[in-house]
Amino acid sequence: MSDLTRLTAADLAGKLAAGEVSSVEATQAHLDRIAAVDGDVHAFLHVSDHALDVAADIDRRRAGGEQLGGLAGVPLAIKDVLVTTDMPSTSGSKILEGYMSPYDATVVARARAAGLVPLGKTNMDEFAMGSSTEHSAYGPTHNPWDLDRIPGGSGGGSAAAVAAFEAPIALGSDTGGSIRQPAHVTGTVGMKPTYGGVSRFGAIALASSLDQVGPVSRTVLDSALLHDVIGGHDPHDSTSLTDAWPSFAAAAREGATGEVLKGLKVGVIAELPDSGFQPGVSASFRAALAAMEAAGAEIVEVSAPHFEYGVAAYYLILPAEASSNLAKFDSVRFGMRVNVPGGTVEDVMAATRDAGFGDEVKRRVILGTYALSAGYYDAYYGSAQKVRTLIQRDFDEAFARVDVIATPSAPTTAFKLGEKVDDPIQMYLNDVTTIPVNLAGVPGISIPSGLAEEDGLPVGIQFIAPAREDARLYRVGAAVETLLVDRWGGPLLDRAPVLGGTR
């Protein structure tokens, strides 16, 4: 494997800017890596036919003296929930097989304008409904740490691509943990920005009040660099914040010094008992907190009494919004059409949706339609929104006392493929710590915290900050990353056996 694929995005960008390597060389190295390992990992649904042409154009522009963005020439993987003009956009669904968008998602357009090189589209649970990437219509993605295990979901493809060194950075989306939970189980970094901080225009909608696009990477700095490219106001997105954002990369570099930990107040939720977590996950979480405390942080217990209702509220709000958003896939306006000889429009619509949607999508659409139906709206959807408000208040009260809140990023390490696919409740509980972040619209980041003792698989720690304080997360995340990498003696991914390391 070429050493270029082992470089962080920041280091690769530095070599590109210094003329030590060309974008064509970097892109070819990653394409070769994809060709070598993706048959086993299945992180990609589509590999770009134009990547080398884009890279060559970047090299020509750089050689001509043009001032380019800091990540110009760096390869990028794109979750298939984001539409692209030059590659199919399926959202992991058969109903959109082969669909070509007439426009790019805003984050994709911004990445292209900054000179990043799209490598391809990554696999995902269909319409982002899932926690294991087993609900893709195009087959599951495998965890690079253990090919018999899940890479998380719904964005397992992006996380696996980054973990397997098929791409240095990737774009993902997070509706209830779909960036952070895959990061947890693959030993990568996943950032869910403040709601409205990154445009959703061109992201195929699941639940519009919860969806958020964000970066996937191997380091906190790399996530910050990509966040700087894709963030900011977009007039095409009615929920886009008009805030002027600071440099997230500068925040990450500041945090890497470790000084931010001195006097930092870190909240730990009293109502989050160890009983629901794998012992190795809890042990890794406690060890990370102890390391932070030794570095000068103050650990403070905070109360969030309504978090326990988050999963239940989420699985009413999300299906209700998904039921509405997916109504457009009706055999008339978008996607596939199943012809029914002599049938009515309704017959064709029913046949198309039956053939085009997978079981998990059908389950959630049916649940959401029921929750929105006359006579049940207030009892289900309305009540869930009230719980959402209570969770937001829990966050407000906690952040009056602490700078950030810390939790395990997920309850377990990566489970075996097929182990929970037929048990929706157990699958949904994978997002117990990530869901409240989306319900409240605040930012959250997952960074690797170690390996679980019982199975040697990656574990993540999640940090949560108040809305609009994404830079705070990058400072804290980078500080903890530096602290823990020093303790491990190198990046965690260097110890993944499937990738050539030893645990």
Protein architecture, described:
Belongs to the amidase family. GatA subfamily. This is Glutamyl-tRNA(Gln) amidotransferase subunit A. Heterotrimer of A, B and C subunits. It holds the Pfam family Amidase. One of its GO terms (cellular component) is glutamyl-tRNA(Gln) amidotransferase complex. With 503 residues, the chain is an alpha/beta fold. The protein has one domain: Amidase signature (AS) enzymes. Helix content is 39%, strand content 12%. It has 16 helices and 11 strands. It has an 11-stranded mixed sheet, sandwiched between helices. Strand 10 and strand 11 form a beta hairpin. Helix 7 runs antiparallel to helix 8 and helix 10 crosses helix 12. The longest helix is centred in the C-terminal third of the chain and has 22 residues. The chain is globular. The model has no long low-confidence stretch (mean pLDDT 96).
| Helical content (DSSP H or I, runs of 4+) | 25-40%
CATH class: Alpha Beta
Task: Give the C-alpha Rg.
Answer: 21 Å
Relative strand content: 5-15%
Q: Which CATH architecture would you pick?
A: Alpha-Beta Complex
Estimate the global geometry from the Cα principal axes. Answer: globular
Q: If you average the pLDDT, what whole number results?
A: 96
Task: Give the tally of β-strands.
Answer: 11
CATH H-level homologous superfamily name: Amidase signature (AS) domain
Number of domains: 1
Catalytic activity: L-glutamyl-tRNA(Gln) + L-glutamine + ATP + H2O = L-glutaminyl-tRNA(Gln) + L-glutamate + ADP + phosphate + H(+)
Subunit structure: Heterotrimer of A, B and C subunits.
Family: Belongs to the amidase family. GatA subfamily.
GO cellular component, one term: glutamyl-tRNA(Gln) amidotransferase complex
